[in-house]
Amino acid sequence: MSLFPAITHRRGFLGSLAGSAAAVGLGGLVPQALMAAPEAGASAPEGDAAFNAWLDGIKGKYRQLYDATETNGGLPLIWPLVFLMTGAPAYGVPESELGVVVVLRHSGIPIAFKDAVWEKYKFGEVFKVNDPATNAPSVRNIYTNLKPGDMPFPDAALEKLQARGVKFGVCAMAIQFYSGVLAKQMNMDAAAVKQEWLSGVLPGIQVVPSGVVAVNGAQVHGCHYCFAG
Predict the structure, then answer these.
(1) Residue-wise pLDDT tens digits, 44-56
(2) How far apart are CA 204 and CA 75, in angstroms?
(3) Within a 10 A sphere around the Cβ of 140, how many other Cβ atoms?
(4) DSSP 138-206
(5) C-alpha angle 199/205/208, rounded to 5°?
(6) pLDDT tens digits, 132-149
(7) pTM here?
(8) Using one digit for the tens of pLDDT, what is the confidence trace for 151-175?
(9) Which domains, from first to last, does the chain contain?
């Protein structure tokens, strides 16, 4: 039986989360997860310093935001690559004038994690991501440190995009929810699992208070919106 049989992508998000949580005995987790602020910066009236510094780090004249709610076959990485490849010659500017932000939220968060988290928590099975080499649920992050055949554009590997200045954020609320669901399913301590996930975020990716706040903040900082699936 699938761990998240009730989850439907893009529509009915809150109702789907409630149904999924109820299926594994977490009926009370959804309101707690959605109403409780993440620990980082929660008590600071001046705001989340790390998050705001991340937003302030968006550079360039032409700024683009990709809103990734699913892994979507790697398109949240491929589209930023295409923007970098075509934007500079199209506008007649150096690539440094292209500011690119990718916000990983909802079911797009697996892209942000190290292989060890993928393997231990069966991300390939939970988030419906198959390893191209085996056509079975992946036990590794197929979006970074690519193996041949992982994606049609090797330059879309996450670490290669980071090296070209693309900024990535991952939703703390989605981490809190999904880690809580899996902790319950695996009879583990939810706080410990959440901390393990936070420690398992790939280097250079900012954990943002929520994906929706990051999407808003990037637009306030001059980014144009594109839904990445």
Answers:
(1) 567 899 999 999 9
(2) 20
(3) 19
(4) -SS-TTSSPPTTS-S-GGG-HHHHHHTT-EEEEEHHHHHHHHHHHHHHTT--HHHHHHHHHHTBPTTPE
(5) 85
(6) 999 999 999 999 999 999
(7) 0.84
(8) 999 999 999 999 999 999 999 999 9
(9) 47-227 (3.40.1260.10)
